[in-house]
């Protein structure tokens, strides 16, 4: 196992190094630079030069890269050009907000699927079937920006029931009831397409289960339909739905970028968008490297687990 | 008796009651934001402000976005303040001043009893520190050329300061109106956005990047405490979301609302649109790179001036929030001359005649603009249409804002560009020495002319407060003759307000002044 790790870890490190070089160079190939963005339209060239010097952008590219990587290796993520603060703080705040939003959306999506999926599975041909089909089609087809604007108009502007956006002034942990109201619309907006996909998936799996012989036997033995659905078929349908849920979690994280923008929810999506638009290289570099690192580490752990479970992988590699 | 059905019904009832009680116990986040409604003025309350861009702490000495002008307006104060309708300095942190007859020095008497938000007394050393900081290129103060003309700052006593100048500087008061007085002890924290300490009516409490800024009333403010308990500024980048927050009453003041959106929301009951039309004007313009073949002939550049339908652009794009102009000066400027201002009328025939005098076909001209800016995109399309009618083919080149600024600062535009500029509402010489597009020695147009440089210097190097109408007239003439940029019109930023927020004011740099504001 140790020999396997000694072989596998260097390749992961090589991927990370290559990614760091690519991220660093690609960002610098984008036209426009941070000093110009910071200087503004009335700046004279000497002002831009002073800002460039202050940010270290006048150093040779190799030196800039070495400084950045050196910082990363010593757990110093650097400072944002625009915000001026530590990137670690920015990323931590953004990550907490994005995870809160994504988790809330995930819970909503699962809740909706668990309620509507079985209902849809047992209501073939009726008005409920038609209504749920319409919900499924609309929720999957409607783009997030449209549902977001619609929700804001209805619940924020017309009925004035919920805040139109932002996070609570006192922070997410200050008042749970206030936070829930801020979270509700963005979470619903983000959860809607995922909940529709999960509902459809669960309903279809349940229908397949309901055609199994054991269901007919149970019904013939006098077990109620509700007990059969919730006591037996749902349990059997859940593992397959869990696999779909795993895939949809990625979609949730991706969708969060747009939802954060619509609802002014200060997560990683907004951070990346502003970082790219305004050439805040250090922030974008860290966020990109973070996503690469997460992927590489998960891949590494998966491979290690695979090798641990299956000796052929270890030995195959050794041959 | 104790059937499952009955037990279930009881449980459902208990659950429903608990849910109802929990809901009733929850405070509405909407009420918490809007602070309730009423009709009579009151002391206290927190004003909710929405802005479409976040703060950039490193730019705090510029007036480059609405978050910065909001922070500076609430927290900081300058030495003097211009009125909205003229350039007569009024006391702020300086109460009196005396200029040397030859214009090479200015002595200011400072207000006594003023304290920074930390409680430390304000002294002449803070003036020295603030003006020196403003002159440091890394802070990109837009009047830096004026600040660097100050050769020495003497502080004979805590309440007196003398500025020694390299030469007479006509726009010295512009600098004193613009440069915020900083607390030297905490100024190092400005760049990271941790602390902004000034002497203004509101104290800075906190900035959460991409989220909000909070301010509370300064109880020791020398001008008397503000009515408001505080100000909460929310960053809402999406235009529609900003508008929705305003319509729902969750923000009482929105900055950065587009012209079309402001026009549409103006009809909403309880909403008013306040143009910053007195002393805080902006100018929309088309810049011209005079080193490009075709555009190097002043007749072609003047033809562009006559080809543009300025009325249409102001009406259709800026929705009437401005007026057409041929020169940068707004109506309140001492350089404003109605005859010269109307020099470029919409006259395609005259434009074609000038192009005929040029005698050669003008090559295809690229027009660069910020593609994500709907206003700039609309202006660019109308300019393209107007120029095509007189025989100039324009190729539109949308770029992102950072790329645009880089090309502007680096004078890299391959033909025309369109954007807005400022500073024409100050002493006219400020425009020629501080606003980069007009800088006589180096500008984005690659335009140099000894006569223009001489006119700019003539207007600048006169004693502060000196009346130089002849110099301004010459400056205007040079701008029209050179036509290295073509003004479209004077345009106004607009504040969109709920009726619950009263007495909102602003400065010449479009800084938000809520010192006298109150909620009803």
Do you know the CATH topology of the largest domain in chain B?
A: Dipeptide-binding Protein, domain 3
Biggest interface: chains and residue counts? A-B, 61 and 65 residues
Name the CATH architecture of the domain at 95-314 in chain A.
Orthogonal Bundle
- Please give the CATH class of the largest domain in chain B: Alpha Beta
**Alpha plus pi helix count of chain B:** 17
Q: What is the CATH superfamily of the domain at 95-314 in chain A?
A: MetI-like
Chain-averaged pLDDT of chain A: 88
Structural class determined from secondary elements of chain B: alpha+beta
Q: Which oligomeric state applies?
A: heterodimer
Mean pLDDT of chain B, rounded to whole units? 91
Which geometry of chain B do the CA atoms define?
A: globular
Order of helices and strands of chain A: HHHHHHHHHHHHH
**CATH class wording of the domain at 95-314 in chain A:** Mainly Alpha
- Number-wise, the strands of chain B total 23
What is the CATH homologous superfamily assignment of the largest domain in chain B?
Answer: Dipeptide-binding Protein, Domain 3
Low-confidence stretches of chain A: none
Q: How far apart are the first and last residues' alpha carbons of chain A, in Å? A: 14 Å
Describe it for me?
- The complex is a heterodimer of chains A (319) and B (520).
- Chain A has a domain at 95-314: MetI-like (MetI-like fold), CATH 1.10.3720.
- Helix content of chain A is 79%, strand content 0%.
- Chain A contains 13 helices and no strands.
- Chain A has helices at residues 2-29, 34-39, 45-55, 61-73, 87-122, 127-141, 144-158, 176-210, 213-220, 225-262, 268-277, 281-309, 311-318.
- Chain A starts with a helix and ends with a helix.
- The model of chain A has no long low-confidence stretch (mean pLDDT 88).
- With 520 residues, chain B is α+β, with helices and mostly antiparallel strands.
- Chain B has 3 domains: 46-54 and 200-278 and 494-519, Periplasmic binding protein-like II (D-Maltodextrin-Binding Protein, domain 2), CATH 3.40.190; 77-188, Dipeptide-binding Protein, domain 1 (Alpha-Beta Complex), CATH 3.90.76; 282-491, Dipeptide-binding Protein, Domain 3 (Dipeptide-binding Protein, domain 3), CATH 3.10.105.
- Chain B is 32% helix and 22% strand.
- A 7-stranded mixed beta sheet of chain B has the order 8-9-10-1-11-19-12, with helices on both faces.
- In chain B, a hairpin with a 6-residue loop joins β2 and β3.
- The radius of gyration of chain B is 26 Å and the shape is globular.
- Chains A and B meet through α2, α3, α5, α7 and α8 of A and α2, β10, α7 and α14 of B.
